[in-house]
Design brief:
Helix 2 links the parallel strand 1 and strand 2. With about 290 residues, this protein is of the alpha/beta class. The protein has eleven helices and eleven strands. The strands form two sheets. Strands 1, 2, 3, 4, 5 and 11 form a six-stranded mixed β-sheet that branches. It has a five-stranded mixed β-sheet with strand order 8-7-9-6-10.
């Protein structure tokens, strides 16, 4: 009789234990991933939707961090930067670490990808004349623009790193006629700028090689370009996952830092990037990459 009573008491208690366990279970913390529709890095429209260089890596990270409730929000550049400064847990994969951003965001310890810095881009018909200005595989923007032979078409709101931005400021002060400013209209604006250059409105511009080459593949009417490293520019630009300094954002970065450094998705993203580079740029890239890892 005693055993029966004990069994009955145990059975009566069991649902209470299960119910209590269900009540105290912590829900997954929500985090918003801010992504751009900016080929070739992030693609969220058209036939290549979700197939950008960073898209598959982000999906790999999301799958390995099930302790968070992940939401993807496609935004523009300005909206992304504004949301990263709010108290809503937000993260992104498509920004470089800068002192200004470090004031409100925290970056993963290891970069998941490296980019070549912006290049001086020229059509093949004038590239030969530019090669005479190459010293130690780089060109001086000031020297080229001072020659009076070249006109640089750019978007003035774009930043290209401290070294290049400083050179542009000096050119604007000393040779203002050498720069022609255009109004940026959206993520298609790089194509617009290259297309205007191809039509002869100016003969040089600044762009990331991988962006220009992707656009050449998707827009065959664009001509072939040559790419010239710029004196003083950083050799390679590391890309890190970053989150704003909210409690959840800090937890996401802590979790990311514990992931496998040689993640297959990150290595594939690196290979996909290399496949977009023309031979000379790929040679430069591969020569620099081992020194940085």
């Amino acid at each position: 009789m005693t055993w029966v009573r004990l069994a009955a008491i145990t059975l009566l208690r069991l649902p209470v234990v299960l119910l209590t366990s269900h009540v105290v279970a912590e829900p997954a913390s929500p985090v918003r991933w801010l992504v751009l529709d900016f080929p070739p890095y992030e693609i969220h429209s058209g036939a290549d939707n979700g197939d950008g260089l960073m898209d598959r890596y982000l999906q790999s990270v999301i799958q390995r961090l099930p302790q968070f409730q992940h939401n993807i929000d496609v935004v523009g550049f300005q909206r992304r930067d504004a949301l990263m400064k709010t108290t809503q847990p937000s993260c992104t994969v498509s920004r470089f670490s800068t002192p200004d951003r470090a004031r409100y965001a925290v970056f993963a310890q290891r970069p998941f990808m490296y980019l070549l810095p912006p290049r001086l881009v020229a059509t093949r018909d004038i590239a030969d004349s530019l090669r005479s200005a190459v010293e130690h595989d780089t060109v001086s923007l000031a020297q080229i623009m001072n020659s009076g032979q070249y006109l640089l078409g750019i978007y003035p709101a774009r930043h290209f790193g401290d070294a290049i931005d400083h050179q542009l400021d000096e050119i604007r002060a000393d040779y203002p006629a050498a720069i022609r400013d255009y109004q940026e209209t959206g993520t298609s604006s790089i194509f617009d700028l290259l297309n205007i250059m191809a039509q002869g409105s100016f003969n040089t511009t600044l762009a990331y090689t991988v962006e220009a080459e992707y656009l050449r593949r998707t827009h065959p009417a664009l001509p072939a370009f040559d790419y010239f490293p710029i004196t003083g520019a950083t050799s390679l630009l590391p890309l890190h996952i970053s989150c704003n300094k909210t409690e959840v954002g800090l937890a996401v970065i802590e979790a990311v830092d514990k992931l496998n450094q040689h993640d297959a998705a990150a290595l594939q993203a690196q290979r996909d990037l290399e496949s977009l580079l023309p031979a000379e740029e790929k040679r430069r890239y591969e020569a620099l990459l081992p020194k940085t890892k």
